[in-house]
Write a structure and sequence with these properties.
Length: about 170
């Protein structure tokens, strides 16, 4: 709709072999993916490239969003150390998702991106915002940085990107 916006579609799956190349030309990453291997891959790549990441997730009647500023607060692995075992968390395909949730969470993610670009306000780094659509509640949870985090901690054990889909079944 905006003639000044240039959308560049990439018609390939995001993998550990192409993600760093794809991301290097962008200033901010917005994650709206629907599976854990990709979510962790994006987090780890953003920490390695020191790129801001605005992460959003939705399931059933709830959505959550957080902003990761590498070097300034926790990363996604500080919040959730590793993906849940396959099958523990149902996918949107299995459990469903309220149709308006991508719009609500997406608009909040876009707001975070604008705040980062403009240098205005306080980004959601170090906090997880949870939206409960049924109760119409927004709740913020403070998230500390994990000094032992495998990717952004003092002694990271993840030093190169792996194919996480081999370890964790795609939801
Ligand atoms: Zn971390």
């Amino acid at each position: 709709m905006n003639p000044d916006v240039n959308v560049i579609p990439v018609k390939e799956r995001l993998t550990n072999t192409n993600i760093l190349d794809l991301m290097k030309n962008y200033d901010i990453v917005v994650d709206g993916t629907d599976n854990f291997p990709t979510r962790y891959l994006i987090n780890d790549a953003c920490v390695m490239l020191k790129k801001p990441l605005v992460s959003g997730a939705i399931l059933r009647f709830e959505g959550q969003i957080t902003t990761i500023l590498p070097g300034d607060g926790p990363c996604y692995r500080c919040l959730f150390e590793s993906p849940p075992p396959p099958g523990l968390v149902p996918s949107c395909q299995e459990a469903g998702v309220l149709g308006v949730l991508p719009g609500v969470i997406g608009a909040l993610q876009a707001t975070e991106v604008l705040k980062i670009i403009l240098g205005k306000g306080k980004p959601l780094n170090g906090e997880l915002l949870i939206y409960d659509a049924l109760g119409t509640n927004f709740r913020k949870v403070r998230v500390p940085k994990n000094p032992d985090c495998a990717i952004c901690g003092a002694n990271p054990t993840i030093t190169k990107l792996a194919d996480y889909s081999q370890e964790y079944c795609t939801l």
